[in-house]
Amino acid sequence: MDNSAAPKLWLALACCLALSLPFGVSHAEPPPGYQFVRYDDGLRLAQKEQRPIFVYFGRYGCGYCDKTNKVGFADPQVKAAYSQHYVLVYVNSESMDRLTLPTGERITEMQLGERMNTLGTPVFFFLQPDGKQILKAYGYQDPAKLLEMDHYVQEGQYARADNPSPSAQ
Amino acid sequence: MISRVLLLLCCALTAAGAAADSNQFTVAATDNTADFFQIESSGRKNMAADDQRVALVWEETRGGHTASHLAFRPLAGDQPFGTPIVLGENDAFNPVIARCGSHFYTAWIEQDSIRATAFTGGQELPVVTVVSGSINELSIGCQTDSALLAWSARKGNGYAVSATVVQTEKDRLTTQTPVAVAASDTYRFQTNPGAAYAKGRVVITWHDRSSGTNLLYATSGKSLQQLDTQTQINELIKKSYEWGSGSSAVRNTLAVGEHQRLVAVWLDKRASRAGYKVYSAFSNDGGISWGDNYDIIDEWGAVVPQWTPAVASDGHDRVMAVWMDAREDMNCIWSAKLSGMTWGANTNLSDDAEEVHSPVIAYSPNGALHVAWIEIQQGKGSRIRYFSKAK
Question: Which residue in chain B has the smallest CA separation from A62?
Fold first, then answer.
């Protein structure tokens, strides 16, 4: 991308976001500009494309979600890496919308949080294409931390017993 | 390991202590790990009882699709639950049930419609379609011997809560025109409804995140056609003025206790860590005003998140809340009794060392307690367990 176009693009995105929200409201939706999908759709897509999954459990009102969106995910390097490397899944951890799991079981998004022991929000999971957990991280994530976790997963370091997970915090 | 041994001991002592005047049954079971049970509804109204029988509604996939089932258990002696009745003819989910006067009303979501029926004595009334639309959640309460149904349905890019009254007339059910509970242009994401009737007022609870976080509201009035403006129930705790919109309140559940005092119980995300806590508030004026918020969880449960709270009352002095948490390293069903404005010690109700979840609760008018939940037997399927205790 032409570097000179980037500020204009961000300005346009910011304007769109501002216009779409009531004044004074802080949302914690998935960060803008990312292609997040539902959990059940994401599992199917990951199986098909054999790509790892990045799952973001968020909550409306959640301060650390808001900060991670506006600082962590706003970083262009993070956006490029995560958009390219993962099937991106967002779960509204307070939603009663139903998901259909690969087993056929239908549970709400909130029940999924209960089963994955999400504790609070935000919680981030890196999963293998078959849904097995690679890494779990709690709380605010700055760009450096997000990139560190990406490297850890992409380089397959989780398969090495002598390499501790960067999420141990 | 030590905590697991203590848990087993605790569970065994709990079961032994309750054995003299309690019953436990398996309501339904499957040894196929590909089959699933669900006890899930808005307000967690999946069980109801009078002094003669208790009724439980649930979802299951044993027939190859999601079906809703209802089973009754006679309370005399040690009789188990009877043969389940299948609710609806297609995929059916979010079943609810309430005992209002001498009627057991049940309703469920089937093919984007709410369907309902009632059982009076041994007679099942013809099923009626209450409303059609993109229904997402459904709850039930009683208005004397009629049922109050409240549901959340898609509206534009959000959700709106509506409610109606369902009543028996001779041998059929009649329904009123549904009423919107709050302005959907201001409150654009109304979900998780609950319904009750106290002090001559209809009360519909719901939460909405239009402010940026889920806040819990009650709308009440002398009838659904005379609803007043909404009142916020939960206290909003805001720890940052830079990030986020503050704490949230979700999964509310309602009971009407002694002197028709309303008890609202919900999951509250105000703690810094350890996820959701179970909080409560009371209204003595039929939902017009609500008092301070009270934490139900004791210090032992404060370190883990709580899930799926439910509350019930016998309409007199007994009010109990139940929920699931893993304070002892595995999922157990926990409970607390209300005494005045104070919640008692958290007590484990699950009877063995299997993973359990999704508790629901009901009281008979005579004070008999009924609790049901789902038990996962690792690698061996799952079952619905039921526990009852005489007054």
Answer: B244
